[in-house]
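Team,

Forwarding the record for the chain on the shared tracking sheet. I've put the sequence and predicted structure together so nobody has to dig through attachments.
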Amino acid sequence: MISRIACSYSHARRRRRVATSAAVLLLLLVSTTATGQEPSARRFRAGAATSNITPPLGELIVGGWSPTPATHIHDELFARCLVLDDGQSRIAMVLVDNVGVLRNVLDHAKRLASTRSGLPAERILVASTHTHSASTARGTNPYDETAPLDDYQTFLAGRIADGIQRAVNNLAPAQIGWGYDFPRTAE
């Protein structure tokens, strides 16, 4: 049973990696075609960074029927940032370890990142892992996106922007590649 679960998990991870690689390649292909430049005339660069977004102890851990306050930290939470630059345009992709982040928090993070890095807000994509083992950034009233940001939401937006700026600072010549492997099974 355990090996079957591990194989399913491994297979799902592989599918996500292949889908992500395909999306990035498609983006680069469209970008190259749209500019009319030869791919060799430009230099592809990538930069990555992580920002620790672990909330303080006492924040509610959501995902069950009755959220409970965190009393210890088993694993820290991160915003994982990737910036891609093909010499003509630059994009940022961020994956946040969180069950859900409101649009106004993401908009604030994008504004901060744009101000700090010069990257246009419309070229920043932020997604959430939707983990049920962490805090939420939905605030006290998740249905009111006009409410002022609480302390954790403000912290999270700042850390996302920090990660994007560090990823920009880490831009270096890069190549894209992909592969796959088949899990080894016991015989």
